[in-house]
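cron nightly-structures :: item 1 of 1
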Amino acid sequence: MLTLSTSTQASLFTGRSLGLDQLHTLFDLSPLSVLVADSDGVICYVNVACCQGSGYSASELLGNHCELLRSELTPDPVYLSLNQALCRDGRWSGELCSRSHNGKPCWQRVHVSLFNGPNKSPHTLMLMEDLVERLEYEQWLFKHSGIDALTGLPTRVQVYELLCQQIELTHVAAPCIGLLSLDIYRFKQFNESLGHSAADQLLIAVSKRLKQRLQVNDRLCRLGGDQFVLLAAKQADKQAVGVLAASIRDDFSVPFSIAGDKIFVGLSIGVAVFPDDGRDPVSLFRHADTALYRAKKQGRNRISMFVPELEQQALQHQYLESEFRFALERDELAVHYQPLVNLDGKVQGAEAVMRWHSPSMGLVSPERFVPLAEVIGMIHLIGHWCLDQACQQARNWMDRADGPAFVAVNVSPLQLCHSNFVETVVAVLDKYQLPAARLELEVTEGVLVENREQAASRLDQLSRAGVKLSIDDFGTGYSSLSYLQHFPFNTLKIDRSFITDTPGNRGSAKLVKAIVAMAKSLDLQLVAEGVETSEQVTFLQALGCDLLQGYYFSPALPAADFLTWLEQRNR
């Protein structure tokens, strides 16, 4: 984490040397946590406060690398900024999250400086101030004062009381009141990539932009995290509230400037209106939240107006969520494999697909539970589990002469943008001694738009590690030739929606021909998914499509059934 090159060390350490015995005298009684590491990042001194704050004893810390205290909650760009500042100035200050002995994260204000140690050898000094008490105070203030400490906005308590007053006045004044529940689309990714401090700056900037839309008697509050509520009093009708929501959404087409970078932020907006959608604050808040959930499911920059049917859907979602949280530990999840067949009819690979067999709901589609896993923060857990299962199965196939040459695994945008995703993939490959070329990771186009720099970095690292990369569902969303030109993809998958109408539909057939020609000119392997008829097989084979996938050959099967199907096909 804090290791510097020899040349950099030589240029920085020209000051007066200090012995470690002097540091003992200076820092043993300090209330701040103090840590000293040598040029290799190995800890050579800690004071009492550091041991108390981290939960480690001195003997457990001394001689170990600083990485022992590193938490994944601190994004990689923060560490990059730290090392760049040390190389340039010899010092750095900022917020880091460290990992305590019990695994609990601990946010700290950290000051890092370089100095000459014994024999003028380069050392690193870290002074750390625990922020837990400050954060706990902010949470207390948020809960009890009715004011959000970060943005200065009212909290739910104040807006709830104002809504009660407006409802009373509305009976004799304006026809309706709008309650808009808003949150930042995929804010968790911003938090992970920008870091704690920059994400706070983004929240402040968002609150300021939202406040520009307020009229007299309107109120904006922050509920916590990235969720805001706007109370729009004295609206003419439901349509007027919808127009206001659209105007707010359009305001966010202009990027924010955060830490020197331009950040494009999307909103999800749920709308409930008094009196149509509820005649009391509790109902209105609940219905606005229900509409917000629907907007988030629909994607970036979506607005959802509450309708009664959403309430039943919300109840179904709550049940789905409560059941899914225990699906993995109850052994209800499974990985099935769908074959990828080449032009000679040989099974070349297999796509790993997650399945959820719920005792109460039966077979639940991944289209339902994967987005749910992203929302409730379980996608990293189940994504890692699926990758582990697929790599283990691919390793078993290596021992068979007729086994698939590779396994393809879908990757969520949230997984790809996680700071340790590449390390996770490499660790799983090492675990099963699986050659990287036998793993193909499929990513959708959306992640390349919303997180271009992060995606490029992760994909380049994976490509250099030897992992094959595929762009999935090509042509359905943000298609751009620049993705194929600037990202290290090996494979392009033609979405099933284009295959369904071929070869009968001339428009679809022409589009598929164009995609095939383009991919071949870029030396990309082509996979056509959703193949269901012999006519489609003949059409795609004539175009020279490399691999075919679909029910014409086989649905996704459990690993044992897949081998049975493979043996029967070979016979």
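cron nightly-structures :: done
Confidence is low (pLDDT under 50) at residues 1-18.
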